[in-house]
Design a protein that fits this description.
Blueprint (H helix, E strand, L loop, with lengths): L1 H47 L29 H9 L7 H19 L4 H19 L1
Length: 136
């Protein structure tokens, strides 16, 4: 009886070790794939000027640019940004036009009592594209 218990405990300990090893291997593979996806997305954006669209099943993919890459100029202080806010408005680009159109559609849908989830999502995507364009 003691042999069965001892054997079971050894088996259980081996299983836990294998589980932990598999977990570490899967985490490493996941990080490698994400790193590769980030590199591809950055190269695509640099070459073609637009961000890659996510696959249908993925709702978001955010990452912070690594410090080993291009160094950016220091962010301006809020006092330095104030004169830019008072500067004359520039001609809106295509993304700003798309955003304005989507916002008008959203307001019309709200007034009509129609579902707005898709329009809100579209506005979020356009705003995200604008933020990405400003980072470049």
């Amino acid at each position: 009886m003691k042999d069965v218990i001892a054997e079971y405990q050894r088996w259980k300990q081996q299983g836990e070790g294998l589980r932990a090893e598999a977990m570490r291997a899967m985490e490493a593979r996941y990080r490698d794939l994400l790193t590769e996806a980030i590199q591809i997305a950055e190269e695509y954006r640099a070459d073609f000027g637009v961000a890659l669209r996510l696959p249908a099943g993925v709702t978001s993919f955010d990452y912070k640019a690594g410090s080993g890459r291009k160094t950016k100029a220091a962010a301006p202080s809020p006092a330095a940004a104030a004169p830019e806010a008072n500067a004359p408005a520039t001609k809106p680009g295509p993304l700003e036009k798309r955003l304005a159109t989507a916002q008008k559609k959203l307001e019309a849908a709200r007034a009509a009592g129609a579902p707005t989830k898709n329009l809100e999502d579209k506005i979020y995507e356009i705003e995200d594209e604008i933020r990405l364009a400003k980072v470049r």
